[in-house]
Write a structure and sequence with these properties.
Strands 1-2-4-3-5-6-7-8 form an 8-stranded mixed β-sheet, with helices on both faces. By secondary structure, it is α/β, with parallel strands linked by helices. Helix content is 35%, strand content 21%. The chain has a single domain, classed as Alpha/Beta hydrolase fold, catalytic domain (Rossmann fold).
C-alpha cells in the first residue's frame, strides 16, 4: 500500500510524492502525473507498476504552484489543470523529477508519464541522465521538443484520434527520432489509458501497458 512522502529538490523546494512498491526492489520508476495532480488515478497507475515489482515514486509537480491538488476530469478540472501547469516552469519540473530519482538512488531507473507527464518523460530522457529508459503516453509537448537528444531508449504511445496531438505531429517525431519506438492506437483518443475518462479504451490501455512493461523489463535488466 502506497503513501505520501516528502522530497527535497536541488533548489531547496519541498514537495510531496506518492511512493509505492517494494522498498527492496532493484528497479524503480518515476511516474509523472497528468495535469490533474497525483490523484486517485495516478496512484492506481503507481499500484499497477508496484504490483509488477517496481519501486515507484510519483512527485507532486503542482506543489510549486499549489499543494495538495487532486483534480477530476471535468471541463473545469481541465481548465484548472492547464492554469496550474502554466505556473510551473519546465526547469523546475526536471528538478522535481530528479528529486524522485535521487530518492531511489542505487536502483535501475526508468521514467513513465501521461499527458503532461508524457512530455516530461521525454524530457527525462533528453534533459536528465538519471534514467535507463523513458516511456511517454500521449505527451502533447513532445513534438515541440522533438529535436532534443535522448540519453536512453524511449518508447512513445499515441492515440490515432487524439484531438490535441495530430498524426502530423507524431510523424514529425518519427522523422526527428527514427530510433524511438512509437505506437499508434487506431481509433484511440487522448487519455485512452485513464479509466476515469470518457476516452478510456480498455483494450488499448492493456496493450500499451503490456508494451510499457516489456520495454522496461528489457532496458532495466
Amino acid at each position: 500500500m502506497g503513501s505520501f512522502i516528502t522530497l527535497t529538490a536541488q533548489d531547496g523546494h519541498s514537495l510531496s510524492a506518492w511512493q509505492d512498491g517494494p522498498a527492496d526492489a532493484t528497479h524503480g520508476l518515476v511516474v509523472v502525473q497528468e495535469i490533474f495532480g497525483v490523484n486517485s488515478h495516478m496512484r492506481d497507475v503507481c499500484a499497477r507498476f508496484a504490483a509488477a515489482g517496481y519501486a515507484v515514486i510519483a512527485p507532486a509537480l503542482f506543489d510549486r504552484a499549489e499543494r495538495g491538488v487532486e483534480l477530476g476530469y471535468t471541463a473545469d478540472d481541465v481548465a484548472r489543470g492547464r492554469d496550474l501547469r502554466g505556473l510551473v516552469g519546465d526547469s523546475a519540473v526536471i528538478l522535481d523529477v530528479e528529486a524522485a530519482a535521487q530518492a531511489m538512488k542505487g536502483k535501475k531507473l526508468g521514467i513513465v508519464g501521461y499527458c503532461w507527464g508524457g512530455t516530461i518523460a521525454w524530457w527525462g530522457a533528453t534533459r536528465s541522465r538519471s534514467f535507463r529508459a523513458a516511456c511517454g503516453w500521449y505527451g502533447g509537448g513532445i513534438a515541440g521538443t522533438r529535436t532534443e537528444v535522448p540519453h536512453c531508449p524511449v518508447e512513445l504511445h499515441f492515440g490515432e484520434k487524439d484531438s490535441g496531438i495530430p498524426l502530423h505531429d507524431v510523424q514529425m517525431i518519427r522523422e526527428a527520432q527514427p530510433q524511438v519506438e512509437i505506437f499508434i492506437y487506431p481509433g484511440a483518443q487522448h487519455g485512452f489509458g485513464c479509466d476515469d475518462r470518457a476516452s478510456f479504451s480498455p483494450k488499448d490501455a492493456a496493450l500499451a501497458q503490456s508494451r510499457t512493461l516489456a520495454f522496461f523489463a528489457k532496458h532495466l535488466a
